[in-house]
Amino acid sequence: GEDVEQSLFLSVREGDSSVINCTYTDSSSTYLYWYKQEPGAGLQLLTYIFSNMDMKQDQRLTVLLNKKDKHLSLRIADTQTGDSAIYFCAETQEAGTALIFGKGTTLSVSS
Amino acid sequence: NAGVTQTPKFQVLKTGQSMTLQCAQDMNHEYMSWYRQDPGMGLRLIHYSVGAGITDQGEVPNGYNVSRSTTEDFPLRLLSAAPSQTSVYFCASSPQGNTEAFFGQGTRLTVV
User: Block means of pLDDT (10 residues each) for chain A, length 111 residues?
Assistant: First the structure.
């Protein structure tokens, strides 16, 4: 079945770059997403990438997609303490339909 | 514009009690879904609906019922609560074909 895997924890210093990795098994995945969840809050969409793209950049965020290895990464440049949160990778075959989530990566940023 | 509204925010139930978690969206989205979030498990899909009158099961549907009589509302019913249903529940909506799912703030449910 479909599966999305992420490492559970990442700790970085303020100002460094953070790279959060995700692998997925469904080769028919069409849309891949990164969501951010702050403590006690819902999920906020950070960015997404279509499966026909290799890279997407949005301000401090860079998403890289390696379709051959089914590997997705999120790079946060100049990480700030406000970036501390849980980051979820998710995929779906059709936009607007059910999302399959990874277990989430807890990013801890120290000053 | 309220977006996706979930009520209540917190609830404590006794084993065997029933209750309904409410979810409403004012964006005229066709697609709505319910997820539960457990520590170390990420979000798992319970039920979803692609439009009024249409519902389907997700990954973990047992113990939950849903209905979709209007586009705006998608309630989640627990008929006989069990401690295993202690979790944080999120409702989401999205327009068909759009890339973004909008999430509610969640309902934290404890079953004792």
Answer: 85 97 85 91 90 91 93 96 95 77 95 89
